[in-house]
Amino acid sequence: MHEENHPDMNDATAAILHGPKDVRIERRPLPQPAAGEVLVKIGAVGLCGSDLHYYAHGENGPNVLRSPTALGHEAAGTVMAGDVPLPAGTRVAIEPAIPCGRCRACRAGRYNQCPHGRCFGSPPTDGALTGHLTVPAEFAHPLPDDFPLTSGALIEPLAVALHAVRRGNVTAGDRVLITGAGPIGLLVLQAARAVGAGETVVTDVNPGRLAHARRLGADRALDTSREPLPQDPVFDIALDCSGIESALTAAAHAVRPGGTVVAVGNPPQPRTTLPLAWMQRQELTLVTAFRYAGEFPAAVSLAATGRIDLESLVTARFPLERTADALETALSDPAQLKVVIEP
């Protein structure tokens, strides 16, 4: 990591990705909020799988890093300035995917499908590791005054989980299978329980993550490298949070006839093979989930009232100046759940 220090009242420290595993600490001018925007001083940034892909490979799916960019889309901070009714000092969780608001998808309320939007931390749009962001006021969601900013940064992945649970139409009493006990899987577990799911079963091959699933209330946590899923299809809904083809296939075979499979995790390859003949014979419903569309207020409410545990998912914290160390830790240490950078 290279470091440059040029203190100035009108700029601030930022962590900028120049290429694979090339993070540099630089000074960037403070952005100025436009009409309808607020300037947010970032207090916490959670690292996501997409950040790790950009850091390790310079790309994430079809999107390629072509110019120096600050990563970070899971973020919370404090309003510094703006001309809208979010007074300075308000703690906010940032909804990072900003749609155009005009296209057919946006007008239909499916703004997560906007083809013209931008997302903080998705190159070339700078993200929260700039330390400061100007955010449209409606995408800066107020938090309680005593709400930890580290938890505030996890409102974004919680919104992902809530959207997945809503897409799967999880309801009271449903038997729910969750494949993959990473941060999203653990949040999907809690979201399913919050809407009244009956039995919840979580699968993974990481013993530490499975133990965390038990602590968060999973009825069963199965290490599928040692204990396969039951042969009888008994679950009403399966949500695959791993993106791994074998897990998605196992989930489809574990769902009862007429049940639902939700693809939540991002697959590592552009094409995935599914047991379509089986799914057709069983009349399974396959649902996909991408980001969120309106779930941030519910995510804030559930976390603020203690119905969702966010803080226990934070397993490591780093200052902004050690962003490269944070990314390496998240990339290489399987014991980590959520690594957070605190600018």
UniProtKB/TrEMBL annotation:
InterPro entries: ADH-like_C, ADH-like_N, ER, GroES-like_sf, NAD(P)-bd_dom_sf, SDH-like
Superkingdom: Bacteria
Keyword Phosphoprotein: no
One GO molecular-function entry: metal ion binding
Domain Enoyl reductase (ER), chain residue ranges per copy: 19-341
Cross-referenced Pfam families: ADH_N, ADH_zinc_N
This protein's record includes keyword Secreted: no
Family: Belongs to the zinc-containing alcohol dehydrogenase family.
Name this polypeptide is given: Sorbitol dehydrogenase
Organism expressing this protein natively: Streptomyces antimycoticus
